[in-house]
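Pasting as-is:
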Amino acid sequence: MPKIKMKSHSGAKKRFKQTGTGKFKYQKTFKRHLLTKRSTKRKRHLRAGGYVCDSFHHQVVAMLPYGT
């Protein structure tokens, strides 16, 4: 029997990208719609991406076994 491949999590593939050092970067949430009620400062800070913290790193690795 052939070896069964692991599947990557489809949602995680769209949300995370792996850097050269092995960290995972992502875009902040709450920046899609209903932006008129949010302050300019809040929207400006949401532009910057974020990195997955160390305590959640193993969960993203489990969802993306082959990297991105």
